[in-house]
Amino acid sequence: MAELTRDEEFTAFVASRAVWLRRVAYLLCADWHRADDLVQESITRLYLHWGRASRAENPDGYARTVLVNVFLAEQRTAWWRRTRPAARPPEGAVQEADLAVSLDLREALAALPPRQRATVVLRYYCDLTVEQTAAAMGCSNGNVKSQSSRALETLRRSTALRRQGRSGA
C-alpha cells in the first residue's frame, strides 16, 4: 500500500473526526452554526500545523486542544462581547430567502447533465473524495475533477441568473 501524502493524511484524519469535532464544538458553544464555524477555523489551524499534529502522541487530543483554543480565543474578542446570538433565528424574510435559494439550487442541479449532476451529488452532498467518486462512477480522477469544475461553473451561472431574475435586475 502506498504511503499517503501530507494532504491525504490530513484529509483522512479530518474526514474521520469531523462529526466528533462538530459535536465537541456544539457542546462548547450550544449553537450548531457557530459550532460549524469553530470546526472550520480549527481545521484550518490544524492543517497549518499538521506536521506537528500528525506526530503527536494523541492527534485527537491535539485537535481537541486546537478546537478549545479557537473557542476560547473567540470568547475573548471584542466582537463576541458586543454580539449576542438570539435564542431563535428571526422569522420572515430570512427563511423565505433561504427557501428561494434552496429551490433555485435544486432546479439548477436538476438542469445539469446526468454525469455532472452525479459528480456534484457524490462529491458535495455525499462528501466522497475524488477517488471514491471516480470509483462509484467508473471513470478517472481527472474526469471527476473536470466534471466537478464544469458543473460548479454552470451552477454558479444558473443561480446568479435566477437571483437577477428575482430581483428584477
How is this structure best described in words?
The chain is mainly alpha-helical and about 170 residues long. It folds into two domains: about 5-80, Rna Polymerase Sigma Factor, Chain: A, CATH 1.10.1740; about 95-160, Orthogonal Bundle (Arc Repressor Mutant, subunit A), CATH 1.10.10. The chain has helices spanning about 5-30, 30-50, 50-55, 60-75, 80, 95-110, 115-125, 130-135, 140-165. Helix 1 (about 5-30) crosses helix 4. The longest helix has 27 residues, at about 140-165. The chain starts with 5 loop residues before the first helix and ends with a helix. The mean pLDDT is about 80.
Taking the sheet with the most strands, its summary is: none
Instruction: Please give the domain count.
Output: 2
The first-to-last residue Cα distance is 55 Å
The CATH architecture of the largest domain can be named as: Orthogonal Bundle
Q: Using the coordinates shown, work out and report the CATH topology of the largest domain.
A: Rna Polymerase Sigma Factor, Chain: A
CA-based gyration radius: 20 Å
Please sum up the structure shown.
With 169 residues, this protein is an all-alpha fold. It is built from nine helices and no strands. It has two domains: 6-82, Rna Polymerase Sigma Factor, Chain: A, CATH 1.10.1740; 93-162, Winged helix-like DNA-binding domain superfamily/Winged helix DNA-binding domain (Arc Repressor Mutant, subunit A), CATH 1.10.10.
